[in-house]
Design goal:
Chain lengths: 483, 132
């Protein structure tokens, strides 16, 4: 097992596993962390999994671990790497099963103190209007070509159907539509799983949370995003549901059948890969884009239900209970982007698994109003703790392929969390702190206990100090809604 | 039944043992639904399943993922698995289960991560990591 002695220190917040550490590494691996977070990363197989990604054909510069890295399958959660589109590979297992799992933040003009008497009603209404849990049917009935339209056009479909507002789309990564998506590359089985899942939260670590803004760190960015102290905001964390899981399974299986034909030798079969330009690679690109569009549409429909819930709860009580979209970001994706590598500008496929895009100011893909501040980066903490809004920086562009962390990162297994924490006690503790909790499963609640996660504030401070993200605002929970 | 949960930071992992390779496959299937807490119901539905894989690891992953697919789309859980045909690259099975109640314990997918199926003195053993 790798230890601290095997690492070279690049600067205060960056450690490197040299390429010589293992014979099959093609590039070094770098870890963004402080001493404590590095110790956390070294306690499980996170770094071994990171090193595995550094063996993929066509990988450039270095494989990256964010400070919230933890052990996953194939690639670690909190892992980023880029492969050259010319001769590199694409790996479905390094994107993950929940394609475009992501976070959306909506913000109101309500003051947290004002809504306190109505918070319980709001939590109950959200829980009722936003379907959650396993095996719960979708909140939108799809007909005819609907599913194809969702897969090809994402949030644009939602806009046509009245689930989105025009101003929501520029405040969504890729404007809520992956242009290279191809519904024809999505299997019948994946469609069958997705058909009745649009507008559902799912289970596991997915949630809706009502928060208040408890600190502003960057007044100018906060002004552009219309954020202010004690403001009521809402976070949504969910992804592409069973449709995305099936797309990943389909292509992991298909890639297993051709990987040896392409002469690709891997340390872990879950990292199975095919050349980006191969027929298999291109088919997966189209299917992954389609699953990502399903996830954008899913969060958009949930946003519609949240707006509806605010109206049901606050109509007649407050004049302005509207919610505007701050941003929506993807966690699990691979995207073709242009980055500087060894002083040359090249096209690369950036795989981000449990990591976010974090483009800096003046990035051409950002809408005009975000050009000056950079892309918003939404970082939910563990349940019942703080969350953060950051912006991408020039540092994220130069150091991490325009990428940043995605959350707190687990340190305990779910098994240990279930053994050591009782869901009833956790709920009671949160309610004592004034947090409303609506959860379908108490054992599911226990698995997501804050003690099972790293300290998100520590993760965010490392990101900020290392210059790969800039802190804008901090959020604290008022109500948690889970499956 | 011969399975045990193993610590894994983000997801679930479990070790399965069996005297024979086909029994390893049925024990693993049982473990999936037991870990989800979805057992102990009277069997009322029966389905036929046919799965292929390029080798026995792929066959195991595809078999378990097929069961998860049926669980999600048919809204059923399964507890009894009878293999009617079994080779290292293909199997057919009759599975028995019942309509499932909505539950929050849920496996997204079975992965190939560090997957190995090994023969031991006692029979067969494998460790499976699932995305939850």
């Amino acid at each position: 097992m790798i230890s601290k002695n095997d690492l070279e220190r690049i600067n205060e917040f960056v450690w490197q596993v040299p390429r010589e550490y293992r014979r099959d590494m093609r590039v070094p691996a770098r870890i963004w962390a402080d001493q404590e977070l590095l110790d956390d990363a070294l306690q499980d197989k996170s770094i071994e999994q990171l090193i595995n990604t550094s063996t993929l054909p066509g990988i450039v510069q270095y494989a990256i671990a964010m400070p919230d890295i933890h052990q996953g399958y194939g690639a670690p959660v909190g892992g980023v790497f880029a492969t050259a589109t010319s001769d590199g590979v694409i790996s479905p297992g390094a994107v993950g099963y929940d394609i475009n799992c992501g976070v959306r933040v909506l913000a109101s003009h309500l003051d947290a103190n004002e809504i306190q008497p109505h918070l319980s009603d709001l939590a109950t209404t959200l829980y009722r209007n936003c379907p959650s849990g396993v095996g719960v049917g979708g909140s939108v009935e799809l007909f005819g070509e609907d599913l194809d339209n969702i897969l090809n056009r994402g949030s644009e479909w939602a806009l046509e159907r009245g689930y989105a507002r025009p101003e929501d789309l520029p405040r969504t990564e890729e404007y809520g539509r992956i242009p290279w998506a191809d519904a024809n590359k999505v299997s019948h089985k994946a469609r069958e799983r997705g058909r009745d899942q649009l507008g559902t939260l799912g289970a596991g670590n997915h949630f809706i949370e009502v928060d208040r803004v408890s600190a502003i760190y960057d007044a100018e960015s906060a002004r552009v995003l219309d954020l202010f102290e004690n403001q009521v905001v809402v976070q949504i964390h969910c992804g592409s549901r069973g449709l995305g899981h099936q797309v990943c399974q389909d292509y992991v299986d298909r890639f297993q059948r051709v990987v040896l034909e392409y002469g690709i030798i891997l340390p872990d079969r879950e990292l199975v890969a095919a050349p980006y330009t191969s027929p298999e690679g291109q088919d997966y690109v189209g299917a992954m884009g389609a699953a990502a569009n399903f996830a954008f549409a899913n969060r958009q429909v949930l946003a519609f239900h949240i707006r509806r819930s605010f109206a049901e709860t606050f109509k007649g009580k407050f004049m302005d209970f509207d919610l505007h979209q701050v941003y929506d970001i993807a966690h699990n994706m691979a995207k073709v982007e242009t980055h500087a590598v060894n002083d040359a500008s090249i096209r690369v496929l950036v795989h981000r698994k449990g990591a976010t895009r974090a483009f800096g100011p003046h990035s051409p893909t950002l809408p005009p109003d975000l050009q000056q501040i950079g892309q918003p980066v939404l970082i939910p903490g563990s349940m019942g703790t703080m969350s953060y809004i950051l912006c991408g920086t020039t540092g994220s562009m130069s150091q991490t392929f325009g990428s940043c962390c995605h959350g707190a990162g687990r340190v305990w297994s779910r098994h240990r969390a279930k053994k050591e924490i009782r869901g009833e006690k956790l709920r009671a503790e949160m309610q004592e702190r004034g947090i409303q909790v609506r959860a379908g499963s108490l054992s599911g609640l226990a698995e997501e206990a804050p003690a099972a996660y790293k300290d998100v504030s520590r993760v965010v401070h490392v990101v900020d100090a290392a210059g790969i993200g800039k802190m804008v605002a901090r959020l604290e929970p008022l109500a948690v809604i889970k499956g | 039944m011969s399975y045990e949960e193993i610590d894994h930071t983000a997801d679930w992992a479990f070790r399965v043992t069996a005297p024979t390779l086909p029994e390893l496959f049925t024990n693993a299937a049982y473990a999936i639904f037991a870990l989800e807490g979805a057992l102990d119901v009277q069997s009322t539905t029966t389905r036929e399943v046919r799965v292929e894989g390029i080798d026995r690891q792929a066959l195991l992953v595809n078999w378990l993922n097929e069961l998860l697919f049926l669980q999600e789309t048919k809204r059923e859980t399964y507890q009894n698995f009878v293999l009617t045909h079994f080779t290292e690259t293909e199997l057919q099975a009759t599975i028995h289960g019942a309509p499932s109640q909505p539950t929050t314990k849920f496996i997204k997918a079975v992965t190939f991560h560090n997957l190995d199926i090994v023969q031991t003195e006692m029979g067969w053993e494998t460790t499976i990591v699932v995305d939850v």
